[in-house]
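SEQUENCE-TO-STRUCTURE ENTRY
===========================

Subject: a protein chain together with a token-level encoding of how that chain folds.

Sequence line: the amino acid chain in single-letter code, read from start to end.

Question of interest: how does this chain fold, as expressed in backbone structure tokens?
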Amino acid sequence: MPLHVRDLGSGPPVVFLHPGPGLDGSVFLPGAQRVADAGYRVLLVDLPGSGRSPAADWTLAGYAEAVEDFVNELGLQDWTLLGHSFGGYVAMQHVVDYATAGRYVASCTDAEEEPAPGVSEDRWDDMPPEVAAAFEREASVSTPEECLEVWRDQLPFFATVPGTRIHYGAGYSGNGVGPSWLGGQILASLALGADDEWSRLPLANRRPPRLPPEPIRYVGGAAVRRAILTVEEADEQGRRAGPIARGIAALPRTLGLRVGTK
């Protein structure tokens, strides 16, 4: 599968895999230019479905296969694979599946790392309950399908109001060149009524569950999140949470909503 790439400099090749999904290889600029100036061939790849690369299999294995096909098409020899954040996970999947790079550098974020100076530790307190629940569900997934559902609940979605010309994106900040470009492509395809690679992306086809109106949604979401945390804390301490907490934590699943872990 052809991947879009920014090819800088000459010398021993270094393939850069960007954070994301939704960003692109340009996030490494201008720093990557210094690597090229130091005598390396820098290849800033847009991973499948991000930047200017077409969508493909939305799994780590699929991404790793796309990277392997890319380096084979270029005939790279004695090359280095460098992945940051999500790109680091793709790099680790590549070493498991192929291990054809001469060197690997994987820089993945760590939930236990110290916050940067000046960054508030309570910056996640205002996270929407359904998004927070999606992150909390990561520890409980057991199948690829459940993993996909959790992942998609952490991503924005784009859609059209039925019977209207209103097209929108929700859960989307628009910060950065990569996300803005991706969101623009999706919205443009929706506005034109096009059936193409952008309108068929999972971000444009996802139909999140309908939740009650405000203020019930906020109050209910906060209660469910608190109950889930209570149940998980009890499990970690080797005891059983009370029936009220267990009942509230199980409420989304009972109603057919894929939020929460219990």
Summary: The mean pLDDT is 81.
